[in-house]
Amino acid sequence: MVGVAWAAIGLMAATLASLVAALFGLRTEFRGQFVELRSEIAELRAEMREGFRVQGERIDAQGARIDALAARIDAHIDRHAG
Q: What is the pLDDT of residue 41?
């Protein structure tokens, strides 16, 4: 009977060791995936920042063209209004 108890304890210890090893492996895999995800998010943020910068420059250029056109219209109105 004592031999069976020790065999059961040995089986439980082996099962526990396997479970701990599996959990450690999962932890390592998840950590790697989180690091990769953080890297991808950082790259996406950089791409978005650059995209917004380019769009801001386009909007500024369009605004400058509108301002120039408005000045030409004002000058035309001033010449023909009076």
A: 97
CA distances from 36 to 14, 26, 40, 69 (A): 33, 15, 6, 49
Separation CA 32–CA 2 (nearest Å): 45
Q: Length of the chain, please?
A: 82
**Longest CA–CA separation in the chain, Å:** 118
C-alpha 5/C-alpha 18 separation (Å) is 20
Q: Is the pLDDT of residue 82 over 70?
A: no
Mean pLDDT within 49-65: 97
Amino acid identity, position 10? G
| The pLDDT of residue 4 | 82
Write down the residue that tokens 């650059």 correspond to. Answer: 50
